[in-house]
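Homework help board

Subject: predicted structure for assignment chain

Our instructor gave us this sequence and asked us to write out the predicted structure in token form, then describe one feature. I got the tokens but I'm not sure how to describe them. Can anyone check?
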Amino acid sequence: MSEIKHGAPEIPNPLRVFMTFESTGWFDTTKEQKEREILPALNDILESWRHNGSELLGTFDRDIFTAGHAGPNNWHACFLFNIPDLQTVTNMTHSFREAGLDRYFRLEASIGRPFFLVEK
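My token output:
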């Protein structure tokens, strides 16, 4: 059996970023708040991310077999991006704070790399 050589991981350029998205205070809002305030602000932020140098690789929403609070996974949906630098990642997470959306959603970024056994 051959041995797999595995050195120290190299930080990719662009960064590979996995963002988890959880609805928190969303469940305590009215339909009117959602439609008039929250969703327009969220859509503005997501649209701004299309123009910040990031590349959206994919999304995943767990709502096929779930409803309500996120439960032990602590997220409802996720985004996978290639992002040019750490400041852009910080700007993306801060955009939720700046817009006041952190009252309704939790966004968390994790930085990794393409899985070396699959993507070379």
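Reply (TA_rk): Your tokens look well-formed. For the description, you could write something like this. The CA atoms of residues 21 and 107 lie 5 Å apart. That's the kind of observation they're looking for.
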